[in-house]
């Protein structure tokens, strides 16, 4: 993938950071410099799939390979990692270089924020979700026991090193999942970008240079939200569009539906609730569904496995909700999302029942 995009800066209360692009993951890591104070935290799958490109770039005695799993990003799993990093000689003036997707990012960001009360870190994101979305925004989220993402910090890296070429090895499910967040960001940006993306999407999923362009366009959208509201007190909440209902579909299907696909289904649910409240015409929902269905269709039948009571329990348990009053992001049209409180029994349950019925009675579904 030729590197054509210039670097840009993200403003942060904790220190601005740069986003730069490299032709290969090896080139990105070599750009960190041979500083003996760097320690590397690397997704073990990425290390093995990209071994040839990484040869010579990662010093074995200062590289810690980690499996990208929800267990690995739990508070319980972090103590041994801290000990290993200390044994490897990480120092207060050292740098932690993190290579991987959102899981490694969460682990690395959290560790960097607590080691010696905060050390410098740099991020080489390797999944589409991490490159197009999570790599900027400063957040880390860690699991504790059965509670997912309930502990975390705001702690930006010093640099983000994008490498579009690394996405070539990403499994198809992960690519589709990442596209869910790419779609969400363009829906938040407005009608023009969304329609342009949808026209490009089929080709983007197989053409690295086009995908790299949409990664960049996604980050441009996210940057405006996080620079205005880095600590998620106001407008940044809108980035949760599709997430309240999406999380419920994910957990009620026991994660059989990939995250980004669940976000697409969650955005459609939010649009349908918006239509039932008269915020958007019903045709807006119908058009969106027709455009998005090709992307979630391979997973649509899995909604059949979602138990109704589990969906509603998950919505109630969402960290933003108390009892029957559900905080969620609704829409008044492309680029016009807003935070609302809706009544679970009266406004959400009937719409989700209809939504699931429509999505799971499609006669062509296998
Ligand atoms: P991931 O990091 O869990 O990786 C998914 C799978 O792809 C893993 O098996 C991994 O080993 C593999 N992989 C990674 N890069 C690869 C590559 N280039 N080629 C082949 N395989 C590769 O996936 P993700 O979707 O990036 O991250 C999900 C996690 O991110 C969740 O835990 C979520 O909570 C978190 N997250 C964090 C933020 C944030 O702002 N901190 C935002 C969104 C999501």
Q: What's a quick, concise take on this entry?
A:
The chain has helices spanning 25-30, 44-49, 51-54, 75-87, 102-114, 128-134, 172-189, 191-204, 208-228, 243-252, 259-276, 282-300, 308-317, 344-360, and strands spanning 8-10, 17-21, 38-43, 63-66, 95-100, 120-125, 139-144, 147-154, 159-162, 325-331, 337-343. The chain is α/β, with parallel strands linked by helices and 366 residues long. The longest helix has 21 residues, at 208-228.
Low-confidence segments, given as residue ranges, are none
Number of helices: 14
Question: Which H/E pattern describes the elements?
Answer: EEHEHHEHEHEHEEEHHHHHHHEEH
**Backbone CA Rg:** 20 Å
Ligands in the model, by name, code or SMILES, are:
nicotinamide-adenine-dinucleotide
Structural class: alpha/beta
Largest sheet: 7 strands, mixed
Task: Give structural attributes.
11 strands, alpha/beta, 366 residues, 48% helix, single chain
Description of the structure:
- With 366 residues, this protein is an alpha/beta fold.
- Helix content is 48%, strand content 17%.
- The protein has 14 helices and eleven strands.
- Strands 1-2-9-6-5-3-4 form a seven-stranded mixed beta sheet. It has a two-stranded antiparallel ribbon with strand order 7-8.
- β7 (139-144) and β8 (147-154) form a beta hairpin.
- The longest helix has 21 residues, at 208-228.
- The two termini are 37 Å apart.
- Residues 43, 45-46, 49, 68, 73, 100-106, 126-127, 129-130, 134, 137, 139-141, 149, 166-167, 169-170, 174 line the site of nicotinamide-adenine-dinucleotide.
- Nicotinamide-adenine-dinucleotide binds at residues 43, 45-46, 49, 68, 73, 100-106, 126-127, 129-130, 134, 137, 139-141, 149, 166-167, 169-170, 174.
